[in-house]
Amino acid sequence: MAEVKIHKLHKSYGSVDVLVDIKLIVEDGSFVVLVGPSGCGKSTLLRAVAGLEPISSGEINIDGRNVSDLAPAQREIAMVFQSYALYPHMNVENNMAFGLKFAGTPKAEIAKRVAEASRILQLDPLLKRKPRELSGGQRQRVAIGRAIVRKPKVFLFDEPLSNLDAALRVNTRIEIAKLHKLLKATILYVTHDQVEAMTLADKIVVMNAGRIEQIGKPMDLYYNPENLFVARFIGSPSMNTLAATVVKKHTVDLGAGVVATVTLPTSVKVGDTIHVGCRPEHCSLSSKGQPFKTLAGQIDIIERLGETGYAHVHLATGQTIVVEVRGEPLVGEGREVHVAFSPKHIHLFDNAGQRIA
Amino acid sequence: MRKSVSSTAVHGILILYTMLALFPIILVIMNSFKAKRAIFNTPLQPPMPWNIDLIGYYKVFGDGALGTYYVNSIVVTTGTIFFTLLFGAMAAWALTEYKFRWNTLLAIFLSLGIMVPIRLGSVSIIQMIAELNLINTLTALILVYVAQNLPLAVFILSEFIEQIPRDLREAGRCDGLSEYNIFFFIILPLLRPAMATVAVFTMIPVWNDLWFPLLLAPTGGKQTITLGVQQFLGQYITDWNAVLAALSMAIIPVLILYVIFSRQLIRGLTSGAVK
Asked: Is this prediction's ipTM beyond 0.95?
């Protein structure tokens, strides 16, 4: 296994920049997840590491070796595709052995590695089957098996779970986490699903519009988002953010005359617009005022998920706030309510979206 | 009710068409077993004990040259199929997979070949083949036929290659296969149904062609079977028994080839590769 170092990577198609100044270190044996909305460049970055996508400038190092100009095969990586990309005319065993045969690996060694991979992934009963005779989950396991037998320095996963149904996705997610522990593999994993990112990653890389917005441990990103994008992207449902105007030192107007006292750095001046963020679980519904000034609104809809639920409150200012409610909510849809924030748990961002407190 | 009426109508039309298409073939086969008099007096009557005459077949089998002509036809047809498929698939792969400078221009140039009938160039082809000293060789025929069939083959195969998921090629690249190995071990096996289609399209006109054998290899024992049969057609006398027997025999190899290729025409060969 090995460390991946990406330095000042830049990629553009003509005048369109798809990856801008990417700096990333994937430590030996760590599980790093690239996450971001569609079109943010996360798959392009993964494909650039794989060597399937040429880069415009910068450097990619795998295990201390500059691989920027090497063909995919010479980079000692293995990729698991979203579509599995199994060779349809070969059975499971040959799918896994195919690459090794061309690499000139001795027959006995191939057989050993295939046997080992199929034991780990429980593919033994399927070895003689063709991909079309397998279910989606089984195909995914074969695709992972094909990666394992190559004994790569780095595993690259491109949204491997997005073609699976919900239940299978949860199972496979756990399988992948176990596999990571077992193989102690360096993994770079792309997903648009932040639950996958949160549950699997040692380190999450949040990307947006070709740039890295923030790199951090899952809970770090959750509790200390560096900017508005990360704050909104990580967490489900996402963080509530309200635009507010600074009316006095340490006092902001949340709209509709509701003012609140917050601690602001000196760089923020009176008259500036800032963003106040609060996660649904740190908001609560009440009928009257709280320490932090409350916002009046009406419940549009309540999503009940079982133990918890989410009330979508339409505020007098026209914005919508999502509030977590536990158990059976006491108030119903259409009711007038007040939303209170817990002041300890608010996040403040300046107008450019950078964190200020 | 309405559905059954329309399905009956469709089948009626299909049966009618099949009969129309098979009629001349059946007529040829039927009459090849009959005596000359019966061929002319009662052409539509199937062979009966009193009019059976296998003289045509005796002549065909007795004529050693005809055997050579069969072999010639088979060599020319299989050779043409082989090279058309090989070069066609390679060109189609290069044109669809790799983006290079003259890519589009080359594709247009090739598709021109579909539109312009090769026979317009017969005179220049004869000149060229003569200068190459290839008159009366099977090589000449194969060269011309491959040129004739390549454009359509490239066109059809390109369409099929585009349908092969991109991920498969990239999986191959990650697996360390060279571009040639990706072509031969991933793309070609998946192109089997498409290649069978092209093979069938290529085979029939080549087997039946009279034009180029007549121009390029009319003598020297290099005649194809269609040309070979002509020896029984005289200006004054035509040996119909022999002609019909030879033509009936000529159906067999092409039928065998068709059976071989049609077994490859399985759809959904790529199923299971990707979701």
From this structure: no
Distance from CA of B253 to the nearest CA of A (A): 29
Whether residue B28 contacts residue B247, with contact meaning beta carbons closer than 8 Å, is answered with: yes
Average pLDDT over residues B89-109: 89
Q: Please answer yes or no on whether A50 and B174 come within 8 Å at the CB atom.
A: yes
Please count the CA atoms within 13 angstroms of the CA of B53 that sit on its side-chain side: 15
* A62-77 average pLDDT score: 90
Q: Do A73 and B177 touch (CB under 8 A)?
A: yes
| pTM of the complete model | 0.80
- To the nearest whole Å, the CA of A207 is away from the closest chain B CA by 23
What pLDDT score was predicted for residue A1?
63
Contacting residues of B for A78, CB less than 8 Å apart: 174
Q: What is the pLDDT of residue A288?
A: 59
Least confident range from A21-30, A236-245, B1-10, B149-158: namely B1-10
The confidence band for B1, taking pLDDT boundaries of 50, 70 and 90, is: low
Q: Give chain A positions within 8 Å (CB) of B175.
A: 73, 98-99, 102, 146, 150
Q: What is the pLDDT of residues B239-269, one digit of tens each?
A: 888 888 888 888 888 888 888 888 777 554 5
State whether A139 and B269 contact (CB < 8 Å).
no
User: Looking at the complex, does the CB of residue B165 fall below 8 Å from at least one CB of chain A?
Assistant: yes
The answer to whether B175 contacts A102, with C-beta atoms less than 8 Å apart, is yes
- Answer with the residue of higher pLDDT: A263 or A320: A320
User: What is the percentage of chain B residues whose pLDDT exceeds 70?
Assistant: 95
Chain B nearest C-alpha distance from A324 (Å): 37
